[in-house]
Amino acid sequence: MKTTTLTLRKLKGQRPIVATTAYDVITARLAAEAGVDVILVGDSVGNTLLGFDSTLPVTLDMMAHHTAAVARARPDALVAADVPFGEAHFDYERVLAGCQRLMQQSGAEAVKIEGGARLAPLMARLTGAGVPVWGHIGLEPQQVRVLGRYRKFGVDPAEAERLLADALALEKAGCFALLLEMTEPNLARTITETLKIPTIGIGSGPDCDGQILVSTDLLGLNPEAMPGFARAFAAVGEETKKGFAAYVAAVRARKYPK
Ligand code: KIV
Questions:
Q1: What CATH number matches the domain at 5-218, 3.30.70.260, 2.60.40.10, 3.40.50.720, 3.20.20.60?
Q2: Structure pTM?
Q3: Confidence bin at 227 (pLDDT 50/70/90)
Q4: 128 alpha carbon to ligand 1 midpoint, in Å?
């Protein structure tokens, strides 16, 4: 059955929501067949598949391209697309046009936007226009050049208070869910208990309403680049290398083709 934003809101308090990223049709199909609830076409495509060292070089064109590939899998999972670096900070008409492109042309069913209370008025207008918005606070990877590094958020009491206020502002703005990235686990639990909308955590402890892991991390595609909180549930990188090596050996030994 197709997962919608309503399904996700109803799952809060019932069972954990499972989300992952995908950037292509095959991964999206496999993730959906395995029962994943939400597929995020993350701007993490920049560091995971495109060879950049952050998400900053990822453009709306790239997001549109990868989102369309994922949507072609026609998964039962909800397909959400990231609004990439800078885009959410233009005027409302341009942001709406970007979201419209991701939804109408690429097939996204929701968008994810990094940013707290300062973006709540924009998110309220978008949801009013029919764009389902998934908020994203805690570590916002698009801020990495300002931050200087990726770090945990909400350990400092003043920062924790600000994050709780951000969470409440985004819920009030109509976000259907909130992603908490690298948020101190006790704060993530407090936010989860305070909000009526589901929280989806990454590196934020076990008490969120759901979890998201980047697909290349959970599949063990590139174990050297894996963050400390992630877990590889398969060794696809090793298996892939074995497959290529077997092919190389078979061709060189004139065993393939027969
Ligand atoms: O782009 C991405 O993969 C993300 C992660 C935090 C899931 O936003």
A1: 3.20.20.60
A2: 0.98
A3: very high
A4: 25
